[in-house]
Amino acid sequence: MRLQSFEIFIVAPPAPGWGGRYWIFTKLTTACGITGYGECYAATVGPKAMSAVIEDVFTRHMEGENPENIELMFRRVYSSGFTQRPDLTAIGAFSGLEMACWDIVGKARNRPVWALLGGKMNARIRSYTYLYPEPGKLDPEFWVNPDMAAKAALRFVDMGFTAIKFDPAGPYTIRGGHQPAMSDITRSVAFCKAIREAVGERADLLFGTHGQFTTAGAIRLGQALEPYAPLWYEEPIPPDNLHEFAEVARHVRIPLATGERLTTKAEFGALLRHGGVKILQPALGRVGGIWEAKKIAAIAEVFNAEMAPHLYAGPVEWAANIHLAASIPNLLIAETIETGGSFHLGLIKNSIKWQDGYIIPPEAPGLGIAFDEDLARAHPYTGMRLHLEMQEAPCDYANGNRFEGGAPACPPD
User: Cys-Cys crosslink for 323: which of 54, 113, 115, 284, Cβ 3.0 to 4.6 Å?
Assistant: First the structure.
């Protein structure tokens, strides 16, 4: 087999847009006609520029290569331009192309990808979702109202979820870590209290922050949340200072989770060596792909750490997460968009099943998905904004802050 051609789909999910402003899918085709699909989550540059990066990575390091030679192609990309260090954009481009290679190899062998990764360790994969409002009932107050959050939590738990995530603290700012406003602490405590009262012991609470706080600020907020026993305190500080996670962990009795903005085993290895974090959340469309994530899971075993693959993207990254999750012994849980997401599932023709709080690993060859190219082409993203964006305004200590979940209001493209 030899990789011969590629195609890129930039897809804009319809409103409300859970999963980000757009998704970047890759399609690879071999000279013998086998196709594979992948997804790039890294979007530090706009869609047009990212497409150019994906093209360069493919033509420079992968075109004409055997898709089985994933390790070799990764080393080419990781070392490109005399680097040999984590590069979020280049490795993000490779991540989506790498997934497509696994899809091809699985189809060529007539086996699901999990079978090529050591077999099925987990027949069912425990899943969690963010709290989202009911379809057609989007209200800006949802993101800051504890009672509305508690009602949504109960709705998802009644579906079968045993863990739900929410992030009432704000803002999500470019300015790095800041001290939380007292209103952020008060609201966060109110969310935890209301949701815990609504779901009782039926579900774990997953508290997200998006790396907003200084070390001291993260400690203040984390200690306030301890009475409600969250399963994790996610990314309490910015991801660019891995050593400080250990300092937060020394003062907060909630497990720390992080990893969605990290790339390659180099960054995850450093995180584990510094200590403090025992729940890793790689985004497979950013971290280096399926094989790199498998290595991270193996390293995590040595540190008695668990894996919780992150998802705020489209359904192909979700499929890759599922194959990784099925194959590893230290799986904690995997993220979904609700029970799979209506548009997400439409793009893969409902080829992955969610049942009673668990994802069922597909048995079909490759990633086990049926990608709908016609639906993808019918929803092109033509704007210039980024997949997710952070606000420039600082924390507002006088008037309070709002974080509007996964689809914040913003000016049109």
Answer: 113
- Dihedral of CA atoms 306, 199, 137, 392 in degrees, nearest 10, equals -50
- Residue 383, number of CB atoms within 10 A of its CB: 14
Query: Tell me, what's the pLDDT at 352?
Result: 97
Both tokens assigned to 66: 């055997």
- Which residue from 381, 354, 388 is spatially nearest to 285, judged by alpha carbons? 388
Residue ranges covered by each domain of the chain:
115-365
Closest listed residue to residue 217, CA positions, set 257, 176, 253: 176
Residue 384 half-sphere exposure toward CB, CA atoms < 13 A:
2
Predicted pLDDT at 413: 57
Q: What is the pLDDT of residue 380?
A: 98
- β-bridge mates for residue 11, sequence order: 23, 380
Query: Is-cis flag, bond preceding 171, omega within 30?
Result: yes
Residue type, 46: G
DSSP per-residue letters across 319-381 = HHHHHHHHH-TTB--EEESTTS-HHHHHHTTT-SEEETTEEEPP-SSBT-----HHHHHTSB-
DSSP class of residue 162 equals S
Contact present, 275 and 242 (Cβ < 8 Å): no
Q: Select from 275, 273, 181, 276 the least CA-distant residue to 220.
A: 181
**Identity of residue 117:** L
Half-sphere exposure of 313 (CA within 13 A, CB side): 29
**Which pLDDT does position 317 carry in this prediction?**
98
The pLDDT averaged over each successive group of 10 residues in the chain (413 residues) is: 97 92 97 98 92 98 98 98 95 98 98 98 98 90 95 98 95 91 97 98 96 97 98 96 97 98 98 97 98 98 98 97 98 97 97 97 98 98 90 92 62 53
Residue 403 is predicted with a pLDDT of 75
Sign of the C-alpha dihedral computed for residues 209, 185, 214 and 257 taken in this order: negative
According to the model, what pLDDT value does residue 195 have? 98
Per DSSP, the residues of 72-99 read: HHHHHHHHTTT--S--HHHHHHHHHHHH
Q: What is the homologous superfamily of the domain 115-365 according to CATH?
A: Enolase-like C-terminal domain (3.20.20.120)
